[in-house]
Amino acid sequence: MDLQTRTGLAVYPRSVVETEHATYFLASTSAGKRLGVLGEAAGFEGVRHSGEVLLCLLTADNAALLREKLPWLRPQPLGLRRSAGCGDRLGLATPGHIRAVRRAGSVAPILAQQSMRENARTGRTPQQVIDEAMWGVFEEGWRDPWGADADHLKTTADIDLCLAAGYTFYTIDPGEHVDNAAHTDSLPVLRNKLPALPWDDLADSPDGLRARYLDRVFSVEAMAVAFDEETLLRAACKYGRAVAHTARMYHHLAAAASGRPFELEVSVDETETPTSLSEHFFIAVELKRLGVQWVSLAPRYVGRFEKGVDYLGNLDEFEAEFARHAAIARSLGPYKLSLHSGSDKFSVYPIVARHAGDLVHLKTAGTSYLEALRAIAGVDPALFRAVLALACERYPVDRASYHVSAGPDRIPKPDALSDGDLAGVLDDFDARQALHVTFGSALQQFGARIRAALAAHEEAHYTALETHFWRHLAPFVGGPAAGEE
Q1: Residues with Cβ < 8 Å from 478, sequence gap 6 or more?
Q2: For 155, left (φ over 0), alpha (ψ -120 to 50), or beta?
Q3: How many angstroms separate the Cα of 361 from the Cα of each of 311, 325, 356, 469?
Q4: pTM, whole model, 2 decimals?
Q5: Alpha-carbon Rg of the chain, whole angstroms?
Q6: What is the distance between the alpha carbons of residues 203 and 278, in angstroms, rounded to a whole number?
Q7: Is 151 a catalytic residue?
């Protein structure tokens, strides 16, 4: 007798795990999803169903105990494998992400990924983000390694909070310590700025810096990286404080982890000016000198990586620069190059795949929320109209912390659209960005309705996600280009 017939429950078939003492599974009930335990259930909190099955709420305590029973439900470091981060602002997207990753075959997924900024706007904790991803892993029966990214960390307190939750991948964001003005400062201004760098934290001095770099040419594969005084001082003044901050964060993390394995990503992408090749070289060499070990690095690339839309810039220029960044990453690591705000950058994926190979990490976040809205447009038009109307209202305010260029006057108005036109709004540049950056306001006002609609139509939601993420992953695994299926 199969489990569904035996228990009378709607069982997710991929979730079923049989061990020596118990069978574990996820079931859909009228009250929501429940963990089912058949057999030895000591420690789990739940109620009996039909006598022999313990039905358990998806609580933090039950999640922690299930991870003890089924170790593959714990996030793990992923190493230098080609990887993709799948941010999920609703806590519902992991099954759709896994279906796309399973289809891709050779991409290691980071299935829990949330920044502190996003946690604040969604009202979630780092522990909730991990647990919700874990339940999705369980539902889909995913047993390969998966990671958890504590994204854009800026303080040691953030590190401690995420360590306690079990994260394995830590993205350090030293953007506030980057001196963007140094990108265009004159040489006399740079000379005046140099003595003020945190030399004690850098375990260095101006004379030591000059001795290591000045008037030297470094070979990186077939490329030469040269440092005259202006190039050196520009790199040091622009990124010196960021390097020092990253080193402090890394050494705190290493001490606090107490031997637990973790991976580090260094992110300087959320800054105003591109990272030159000499600056990338400088950052990597200085971090290594300070004992920092990292698995991926996100420079600020040329062009614009805005939220929710394709790359904005000259693709030939991007390719020429990216190929050189990839050479530096191979030579000074190897480490992966990370694409932040990597969602929907379909025009650059073939370029990145061609030059980085496996040494790439694609980071996505808000695009999963947008595809959830696409599903809602099809199943609950009234709710989608309400979310779009709120986006029109809130965009001028909510855009403040994002690099976006959508025009408020160009966002389609809900009352001008037929029900059949609503899903197409997700393909409109201005609407897509407005919906992307107003997610916090939308979840505050409509979060319960959004989650209820997606729970009632979860296959439509998962299908939208799988289709969208396959478009992201296909160029990296030799699949058809976006739109060719």
Answers
A1: none
A2: beta
A3: 17, 14, 10, 14
A4: 0.96
A5: 24
A6: 21
A7: yes
Residue 261: count of CB within 10 angstroms of its CB? 8
- Nearest-angstrom CA–CA distance, 291 and 287: 6
Residue tagged active-site, from 265, 279, 344, 371? 265
In this structure, which long-range contacts are made by residues 314-323, counting pairs with CB atoms below 8 Å and at least 24 apart in sequence?
315/347, 315/348, 315/351, 318/348, 318/351, 319/351, 319/355, 321/274, 321/277, 322/348, 322/351, 322/352, 322/355, 322/356, 323/355
Per the CB < 8 A criterion, the answer to whether 424 and 378 are in contact is no
Which has the closest alpha carbon to 167: 249, 98, 78?
Answer: 78
Distance CA 270, CA 196 (A): 23
Q: Residue 117: pLDDT band by 50, 70, 90 thresholds?
A: confident
The answer to whether residue 265 is catalytic is yes
Residue 61, number of CB atoms within 10 A of its CB: 13
Cβ 109 vs Cβ 84: under 8 Å? yes
Q: Do 177 and 248 form a contact (C-beta atoms < 8 A)?
A: no
Could you read off the pLDDT of 276-305 as tens digits, one per residue?
Answer: 999 999 999 999 999 999 999 999 999 999
Diameter of the chain measured on Cα atoms: 81
Q: What is the DSSP letter of 304?
A: B
Choosing from 88, 118, 151, 344, the catalytic residue is 151
Measured torsion, CA atoms of residues 64, 70, 74, 77, in degrees rounded to the nearest 10 = 160
* Cβ(111)–Cβ(86) below 8 Å: yes
Quick one: tokens of 84?
Answer: 């993709």
Q: 160 phi and psi, to 5 degrees?
A: -60, -40
**Which two structure tokens, joined as six digits, stand for 43?**
């420690």
- Nearest residue to 391 (alpha-carbon basis) of 129, 304, 404, 454: 404
Please calculate the CA angle 267-320-108 and round it to the nearest 5 degrees: 45
Q: For 156-165, how does the pLDDT look when each residue is reduced to its tens digit (9 = 90+)?
A: 999 999 999 9
